[in-house]
Amino acid sequence: MNKQLHTEYELEVVAREESADGVVALDLQRPDGAPLPDWTAGAHIDLVLDEDVVRQYSLVELGNNETCWRIGVLNVHDGRGGSRRIHESLTIGTIVRARGPRNHFALEPAQKYIFIAGGIGITPITGMIVEAERRGVPWTLAYGGRSRSSMAFADCLEGQFGDRVDIVPEDERGFIDFKTLLEKPDQNTLIYCCGPEPLLNAVERASEEWPAGAMHFERFVPFETGDAKPNEAFEVEFAVSGVVLEVPADKSILQVADEAGIDVLSSCAEGTCGTCETYIVSGEVEHRDSVLSAEEKAANKSMMICVSRAACPRLVLEL
Ligand code: FES
Predict the structure, then answer these.
(1) What is the CATH number of the domain that holds 240?
(2) Ligand 1 mean position to 305 CA, how many Å?
(3) Ligand 1 centroid distance, CA of 272 (Å)
(4) How far is the CA of 63 from the centre of ligand 1 (A)?
(5) Which residues contact residue 125 at a Cβ distance below 8 angstroms, ignoring those fewer than 6 apart?
(6) 5 CB less than 6 Å from ligand 1?
(7) Which parts of the sequence belong to the FAD-binding FR-type domain (predicted)?
(8) Does ligand 1 have an atom closer than 6 angstroms to the CB of 268?
(9) Quick one: pLDDT at residue 68?
(10) Ligand 1 centroid vs 267 CA: distance in angstroms?
(11) Are residues 125 and 156 in the same domain?
(12) Where are the alpha helices (DSSP H) in 208-301?
């Protein structure tokens, strides 16, 4: 595992700006101004509000620099309280703990990109646009939101990149026309999409004719397992720790590892953040996370042990 993912930083809020209705942009840097670890487009960090409240935020790339991480935080009124706490308590000068960066939404090489964002899903896309520019690869962005005033960074993106950016406020123009946007499948184009579940589902429906591997999604919510079989008990061998334990039907591998005192980092416990990713030594897995792509799941190299389970009697993990 990459040690950087486990390293925790104390960061100071050095700038705070209301970048849209309900969205605050925060600039975080080390109190001594030292550089922060490099990150790549699509990466996110964990904000550790306390031991039980850890939230993931994509890094925003618009005018920041190597000593500063910028995040955009939507105040989710019906959420679990993390974003509200950030809005209420993280002011300039506040010190906050952070881990990462981690990237499960990396920008692969392509001859063209189509970026699609809904609401606060614009945050990881900002870095992708800057990276596509750096690579000299043509791109377009379709960015939807309830209203223009709720769409963070919309003016900045439009001002900087002109008509390659299509801002689609629902109250002015309705929904993004995905059927037209994605009507011609192209094997040289990759599509990166981040936003609320209905938008991702609409993109999935409109892109059924596209080649496997063209679509890349970042989800905020747990993967819909649909007709998943009822849980069954299985054995897990923790190869590094040298123990074999049973994972009962009512517990996750993560819970069993925690109870056995095996050191494993976790955060969301619902398969959305990627923190508990663990390498598979052998065995088949029923993947239930929303982090890995369909190709990564098929490759069976790693799994999210907070939600995914064995599809065989014994799994061997690099833990
Ligand atoms: S703890 Fe977030 S994916 Fe497992």
Answers:
(1) 3.10.20.30
(2) 7
(3) 6
(4) 30
(5) 115, 117, 141, 143, 192, 194
(6) no
(7) 6-108
(8) yes
(9) 93
(10) 5
(11) yes
(12) 253-259, 294-299
β-sheet bridge partners, residue 235 = 246, 314
Pocket test for ligand 1, best of 266, 287, 288 (most atoms within 8 A of CB): 266
Same domain, 131 and 98: no
Cα–Cα distance for residue pair 170/146, rounded to 1 Å: 5
Both 132 and 211 in one domain: the answer is yes
- Would 176 be classed as within a structural domain? yes
The answer to whether the CB of 110 falls within 8 A of the CB of 192 is no
Number of domains in the chain: 3
- Regarding whether 118 and 95 lie in a shared domain, the answer is no
Q: Are residues 117 and 59 in the same domain?
A: no
Q: Which domain holds residue 95?
A: 3-102
CATH of the domain at 178: 3.40.50.80
Residue 93 domain-assigned (yes or no): yes
Count, in order, helices (H) and strands (E) of the chain: 8, 18
- Cβ–ligand 1 distance for 257 under 6 Å, the answer no
- Tell me the CA–centroid distance for residue 304 and ligand 1, in Å: 6
- pLDDT tens series, the chain, 319 aa: 444 456 889 999 999 999 999 999 999 999 999 999 989 999 999 999 987 788 899 999 866 677 899 999 999 877 778 899 999 999 999 999 999 898 989 999 999 999 999 999 999 999 999 999 999 999 999 999 999 999 999 999 999 999 999 999 999 999 999 999 999 999 999 999 999 999 999 999 999 999 988 999 998 777 666 666 789 999 999 999 899 999 999 999 999 999 999 988 888 888 988 889 999 999 999 999 989 988 889 999 999 999 999 999 999 999 9
The answer, yes or no, to whether any atom of ligand 1 lies below 6 A from the CB of 271, is yes
Mutate to test the pocket of ligand 1, among 270, 278, 302 (most ligand atoms within 8 A of CB): 270
Cβ of 273 less than 6 Å from ligand 1: yes
- 32 and 116: one domain? no
Q: How much distance in Å is there from the Cα of 104 to the middle of ligand 1?
A: 12
> Does residue 24 contact residue 86 with C-beta atoms inside 8 Å?
yes
128 in helix, strand or coil? helix
Q: Rounded to an integer, what distance in angstroms lies between the CA atom of residue 300 and that of residue 280?
A: 7
